[in-house]
Fold each of these.
Amino acid sequence: MSKLIYPRLAGLLLFLAAATSSFSQNHPVKSPNVIKQFDEYATKVVNEWKIPGMSVGVIKDGKVELLRGYGVSEAGGAPLTEKSVFQIGSVSKSFTATIMAQLVDEEKVKWDDTVKNILPDFRMYDKWVEENLQVKDIMIHRTGLRGQQGTYIPNLGYSRDDVYKMLPLLKPGYSFRGAYEYNNITFIIAQKIIEKVTGKSWEENLRSRILEPLGMSATSANGEAFAADPNSVTPHDYGYAKGKVVNDSTWTDSVKVSPLRGEEQALHWLTVVGPAGSVNSTSGDMLKYLQFHLNKGSVNGKQLITRKGMNYLHRGQTITSQDSTRTTLYGHCWFVEQNNRYRLWFHTGTTWGFTTLAAFVPELNLGLIVLVNSDASSNMRYALMRRLIDLYMGVPTKDYSKEYFEEWNKNSRESILKAAKSPAPEKLPAPELNMLAGTYDKGEIFGKAVIDIEGGEAYITVGPKGWRHKLSHVNGNEFAFRSDGHRFSVKFKTGPDASLDIDFDGGENFGEWKRIGTNNLKTK
């Protein structure tokens, strides 16, 4: 089947690329006029979506055309500038892929190498996958794990090494290489490979191989560095605030934006998913990174990655979406979109309260970075990207932001209406709290969880960090608690065979934690 599909697709892409190049050459656009219009549009987007703020950079033909902040770090706070530091989320994955491409150039690793040959201690649930997973499989999300599977394990205080040991507990959601399923924790495998073949940490490789050569002096990695940076901005939770129903068809819509403080910023999680999402940067530094990709791996006349290696990184590997107007593939940590007007490379990023969009269009020699201090819909960033490209191509400009915001409002409203119509579950009383108290064991990898009672409230202490969190009653024997910015559900079984199940999201609970004793536990 692939022999029939891919030649046709390749031919189509070549035809569309040629047509796009011709189109852009016939529509010259003066940069100052474009930037003025785009700058005004960016201001409109901030106001329309009611986001706290963002930092935006545009680079064209090797020249920085726009670099500025819009809005504020938080309500009543300092204005954002080009020096403001944001978390870039999953755009970090392309940094890890770039390091791996350098190692391939140096013949320290091959894309086709099996992970097991490099990491003898590597384990997976499926033993055949364990023996056959290749380095390239990690980067293009075809390991067999479900989308986001395992992502929230770090929020209970577990480390990268802990998560690596838990990989064999993660049951695949689909056949190996059978589909594209976006996953974060598999990049810990890539981190292990990088560290094994270089003898240096992922962070050291990031600094010496990318940040220093590119002059990205304001860029760092992990939660500790973000917290310590005086230019770091405040992240925000972003959502739809339920409007008041005026009549059956009219709502008063509003956006709810809340700053995230303390552990709600999930900085421990950020560090653990490091190679998948922990880079912190500015719009100015990110333009240097985009120019590096536009230059096919060259920086100041030095080739940090061979052109062959960079072409491999930019090559689409798996079709992720396709309709009558565009085909989008996933390469090595870049989406590659071909539509009827141009070819585009881009990637989004989301962490707790931050979102990012990095994009470049080689035929226009154009790069764009959008850093936002809230987790607003990705369509907000796409609106800016589409508008900028339209402006440079000289085509009639469409108000993507207005269209996308109305769509977001409509979908949010419908979700609320649907939830309101769903019958509420029968409300069951909570068990006596002293029936829950005790120590529960889940073995060497997960360790123990302790439930204690203080002041008429139940608390759970779980994970290697020893974090203690208050349990809130949900229904019957189900409780919930928040840890490192994430909500976990816990279901208790009382009686002689008492146990608890912690839901790691998506029904991922790894089985029961058995109670092993209550004698030495005091309630207060």
Amino acid sequence: MKLHDLSALPKPIAQALSNEKLFTRALFERPESLSHLLPYEEFIESTGHFRHKDGSLGAVFEAECIEHEPMTADQIIFQVDALKSWFRLPENCVLQVLFDQAPISSLDPEFSRVTAKYPGGHGVSRKLFDTRVELIRQACLTPGPLTPMRRRTLVSIRYFPEVATTRAAKDLLARGEVTLYKEMKAFVSEVRAFEQTLLTFEKNSKIKLTRLGAAEVLDILRRFFNPKTSYKRNFAGYNPSLQLSDQILYNAPTLDYAGITREGIKTRTLTLKTSPQYAYPGGMAYFLKLPFPFKLSLCFSFPSRQKVKAFFDLKEFFLQNTPSAKARRQREEVLAVQDQLARDDRCLHLTFCVIIEGETDEILDSRVRDIVNVFHNDLECETIQEDDIGLGLCLNSLPLHYNPRSDYSTQRAIRILLSDATRFIPVFDSFRGLGDPLQLYLSRENNLVRFSLTENETSNHTVVLADSGSGKSAFIIDCIQAAKRRTPEPLVFVIDKKSSYAMVAEYFDADLTVFRPSEKSPFSPFRGTPDDEKIAFLTTLITTAVRLTNPAFALDSTHTAAIGKSIRLAYQKKSIQAKTGYHDGR
């Protein structure tokens, strides 16, 4: 059959092939978008709730992560046990916890804030600090082991009302005004019940929670679906007149059974096959040592006590009649679980997923091995690489996207007790630094650390203790040049064995004194430029020394004035002996 011969084809097919409008529409008509499959409908400004297409309601919180490095073991255990209040939600709610470790953008406003903090100061300090910030920005553009990371934990609560809230308004109007009034009254009652649940959840949480609005959640979703574009330009603002699902996608993703590809970045999903053997507080902090982006998604649903009891009773019945050693051991475990449930514990359904991102299959394979290493060696559990349902699990990890009905098809939910579930919550972060930084560092866990030795204005002294060769001198030199960014320039005194500050003294017009045990001490406080602040400091230093050496001696204002005058005269004497003079303070 020739290509132009349509007579041999069935009549409907021949008519379709000869219809030019069908070809034109197939070429230019946009196919159904992924946005139609996303559940997000609108954001209710008056209540702060998200409403989905199926009528369910939701809210998203950002939890303040815990800096685990400066905490003791008892403090970590206390913080983890305090998470039990998160799992007291009603049965018609689901809880999502999403831990996101992502690279920091080179356009992040944090860089502008730290550089604009101290515009003055010494020129050398400004130059060194600007160079450091620029190097960290360049590391943000080139993914690698030195790429700065930012961690955040999002807590989402999705509420499924008992009334049908998805009926179209025209259907309700067709049924009469009474029906519309009843439906509206029932919906308002459900909204109020959900708001009370949220207020109780937020009040009982020992970790600070911040409720997110439509713009913040939309930005999170856009960063997931547009991972490269989000670092290059700003998106349009949130439009309350459009459906939320239609404001997320800017570039068409490629869907696959194993995951989703957005702008050349692929995803791969791992799930837990078995519960960890050693679930203990602080175990999730092991993931912070991974130097690449990933997401930990924990989706909890709350089955009724009747369903839980029926499941364990049935399992105990069959294990009791199975004459094997493995069955006897499993029956003992079931009895132990039933005993805990009788002591007001609660059984939950948990779907634990790890979403990994990378541009090539080789990068993904390497990162999968690192993730599996943490699960196998640190947490003692097995994982499954999802090649068939990875896309669905990845989409379920998005805020407010999880639906318990998806567990019927994926079959990845595991039963876990409330007392153990708290140990799975990833709320840990590395040290983030201080609020008034003079210097910017990269921690060993790739956190952007804002640091200052003078954060506390009442205790501006520091002792640095470390082994030989650990970099004490380099760290102190870095702190010295960072302190000189302040205006006016502060006085910095450094006492260090094996002095390493000759170069710093040269660039910052400082005096370097080397003490030798066999020689007379060359130190003299009468050095540098005389000004009122320095004379006041030296006066206080001398009066303090007098009080410490002779507490019985009573110093009065006359003694203090005499000491200050003596210091000023000593400065003048030194300048005459050195054949130098001061002009306009120089």
Amino acid sequence: MNPFGYAGWVLRVDLEGEEIRRERLPPEFVEKFLGGLGINLKLYRREALPLSDPLSPRNPLVLGAGPLVGTEVPGATKLVATTKSPLFSRGGKHFVDGAVCGGKLGVQLKRAGYDHVVMVGRASRPVYLSVEDGKAELLDASHLWGKDTYEATDLLLREHPGAGVAVIGRAGERGVRFAMAIVDRVATLGRFGVGAVMGSKNLKAVVVRGEGKVRVAREEELSEVVRGWRKDIERNPILPEWRVLGITAGWAAHSPLVREGVWEYSKWNDLYGPERWLEFKGGANSSCWGCPMACRVDFHIREGRHAGLSTYTGSYMLPARVGQRLELEDPRDAVALLDLCNREGMCYFTTSQLVNWVTRASKKGKLKERLERSFETYLLLFRQIAGREGFGGDLSDGWYPAAERLGLDPEDFEEGTGLFRGVDAIQDARFTRLHPQAFSHLTSPRPHHGGTQSLYTVPMIDLQVLREVDARDMGLSEEELSRVFSGPTGFNPGRYARYAEDRMAVYNSLGTCIVHALWGFLGLRYLNLRQAAELYSLVTGREVGVGELRRAGERIFTYWKMANAEEGFTKEDYRCSRIWLLPRRTPDGEVVLRDYYAEVVLSEEDLERFLGDYYRERGWDESTGLPTQEKLRELGLEEEGFRLPSP
């Protein structure tokens, strides 16, 4: 009989031999690694060859949905993709990624009878993986190859109505290293190259449909808890506006912190504020499976040169950010570039930032090529990047290869948002300030702002609320609280980040959405580790407390860090981007790196001190930035056999 909360099966797909088999989900994996991200990492490392080429057949791609996915828990839809990123860090290193998406693909995977899918090798021809109620097969994708993501999704849904679909576009087919998969039209998976890995395997899509039900140990009790939670969600005073604008409902609070300093803030607000976006809004917001928040938005342009264009996104903030970055005064131009990235299947932020970089360099005379800062030039370069053609094709391998070809140093790109392990940061900490989410760029294997969001990502939350709500709901002891909430900045972002990262590992392993973790300051029920422990216990029948869940998160995060150490990543590879330490000149004045409450200007020495505090809080070796053998034994990881490459 399948365990409660789990389908109990792993699907292993050998694309080269076109062999498919299902394997029992090892109980010891469940006990120590929960599911989702945690078990993905175990399955990945079982197949992977450290230091191998990410675009070779030796690089596995693992998909996983945690034990809460497919239950009635709000927001429990997350699917995790684990693979080695094709993006180059300094020294030619590649990190092991753990990308997350919403939609319904993860739910359909659980309902089809699987918790995880492991794909290895390379197919000899274009194929897609179809999974329907336990039956899996590789089907011919020659009629889909070359089609954009929306066209391919439409064709696949005609053949597999109601399925969850992850599909790549031309960028993935041609190995653009920041290509991603588009999931159910409205979600994205893997801005760090999941799409390129799929393309290297001749895998156009993964299509899953199931009619099964996830078994729950204490179904009536779970339903009662969920009913109470949903009532609190409906009481959220922000919800009515949220259901219209999605995440952009927080524009007034968040937009000053995520601007990029190109225009005066007042100009950006006039050109791209919520009132303008309503002019391009399509129909009603969509939601991930079973989620009441409905934050997925779409665009439909009704007039002008882009009339008739329709596209999807998770937030209006995306084109608003890129529009300012590229100085596009017509928001419809920014939407058109978003649509191109969606259809080609490549990261909108990285594509636009690379184009921003080279067009600014050209304007300053640092390139022999003359590249105008205009929509027409941007459109051409975006298309060339997707097709690996012309000058734009020089950008398709990402920052460091492009820098070498063009003779530029991306660390001198003062208008940029910062570069971490070969990835451009989505948010610049000089604007957002150094909360734990921003700090995790210096410590997390995945150099991304996502997953560690919590109350502190809402600007200027009262210090007592952070301490007595957010931190306490992670189960921090009085001794831990006293260490975290200390020093001249009110709290220590390094010490705090340790617990935020462990919590992120729990959420991504259970399959819950961090949007539901943002509302504790309203006094309503919200997603936190105490709530997660209760939900996990009710779903699986395995009683866990917040402390045990915290320890699982620490184990998963530590395992992830060590998997990246096997790829050659050292403490030096996690250093802060030089750009964050320089003043940013803007039309509204100079912006520098400050603490969360914008009271203290932070120096490189401050960051080093916070890093030391972070390593001490984890019980890691400060000299290497890695777990000690004692810590590995404490977490039950001493027998994993991690092998670090020679210096």
Amino acid sequence: VGVSLLIALATGGAMAAEWPTLALFWFAPTTAANVADPIFGLPLNFFFFTLPAWNLIAGWLLTIAVVICLAASLFILISGGSRVLTERRANYVPLPWRGLSLCVSFLLLVIALRTYLGRFTQLFEHHTIFDGVTYTDAHVTLTGMLVVCAALVFGSLVAAIAGLWSPRGRWLIAALVPVIICYVAVGVIGWYVSSFLVKPNELVREQPYIADNIQMTRQAFGLDRFMQREFPAETTVDATDPANNQVTLKNIRLWDWHALQDTLRQIQEIRTYYDFPDIDIDRYKIDGDTRQVMLAARELNVEKLPESSRNWINEKLIYTHGYGITMNPVNGFTSEGLPTLLLSNMPVQSTVASLKVTRPEIYFGESTNTDVYVKTKQQEFNYPQGDANNLTSYQGNGGIQVGGFLRRILLAFDRGDLAKLPFSDDVNSESRLLMRRNVRERVATLAPFLTFEQDPYIVLGDDGRLSWMLDAFTTSENYPYATHYRFGGRSINYMRNSVKAVIDAYDGTTTFYVFDTTDPIIAAYSRVFPSLFKDASAMPADLRNHVRYPEALLKLQAEVYGLYHMTNPEVFYNREDLWTVASEVGMADGGEQATVAMQPNFVLMKLPGETGEEFVEILPFTPANRNNLIGWIAGRSDGPNYGTSVVRSEEHTSELQSRQYLVC
């Protein structure tokens, strides 16, 4: 009984850890996406929700089957040992073959189930040229697995009948013989077909399966939504058409974000304990015109406090938040060579009437990693003001109310603060604990099943409040016939930017907005957590104006597109037109100069053939192992074009023309 309980706890704990798989299966959307795999004709819902759940259950059953077979084998050994020690044959203990036979019957049945399910996982297999089912798989392996499955079921019946009527060890061997014969036969036939029918005529044999892989991979990563346009790289001055591209020319970014960050740290940190951990690029209406600007949030870093000030009261009660942001046009300079700041200083000063910051305190940020207590008897440091300091008290409802003594003890235990919090006279029952203040940690705790962009960006609303915005992705490794790529430490073959997360920088209120209602995975999670997600239409207009095409998505799509822009199976097979993201000389991880892939670049421009300016994200392509431009991809962020991409390419551009265009 004790061993059984231990096994139950271990297997039950493992299954509990896989709750998302079971939850998605239970709450899978009833309407499937209009996509079916080309081999079995099954919908996406089967591969996303049903198959993972069945594989999980089959794996659990296999564990149980192996455990009970080991236990039955142990009883055989114990009984055999008893017979050896028994002096008189009349006292022989009969060997418990019946129990082992029934256990083996169950094991073979479970293996048959896993073999049957394994037919569907062939659509995810990796091969040298492409992923998915090959000619050999389609004509031999899939049928052969059914034969092996039937042999396993037959062997299970033999073992069960033998266990009930004539339990002997030889019947177990007889039950396994058909399985072994079928398995070897399928392997030999598959080897023959692959070696003598496919390899000499690989392109002809594999061509329809390559076409399926191309189609499904493009769908899985959203490449089928790309618009492709020819765009010749003209070399004349007139090609720039400056009269019709004033918006683009006025918003050419001259400030490098590294240089701007260093400058802001010198002129806007004010005190050593402030920091600008990142620079964000966005677009705002300034004096009626849309301008591209760079923003930086001034966050407080308690680790930079003077050593004499590093105590519990200062770190937990007084120095609780950062303050304000800076904003400057991407190409604005003063006569001294400094950025033209539209928002700056403490308190925040604005040079533009339409820009205002009414709630500059930043309690939640991208480098805010400590817990603090607010609404205490101690006033909080707001910002330095000459020889004195401006102080404030938290006015929001964020965090957890400390409450009475027992609640205080529980909070202190959870946050590792038992030595201070229970005995502090400054913290009262109305005080509030602000925890998980790093916005990346915050959203990952609330929605661990989503993958998040690692670079949140600050947004200034029309009401003057500051918010953080992060892109969130649904991913899967079970899209049929699609090639796998590495993303977020995982191997995936499906990705959608389905969610935008917004975190209020003052009170930490976190809202998830669904932007891709066609994604079946987010549809399932919305049914699991109906109160967690809101529709994109519920996002306030001032925040909606600052959504963008995610960098992580564009980078992965560019990697996939470099190969999968080739839609002709013959060209794809020979890798005749392989593209890569353009490279530049930059800083490697070790701090040394090296040739690295270019990062996406946000630009406010008028796309060729369009009538108005857009905030787009651009990545250029070059042919593999060459340095001349072959095309570029632009992810669009504004209005009805949000979430779409356009690829501009010139297949016959000379190297000189391409280089000149790239410089422009």
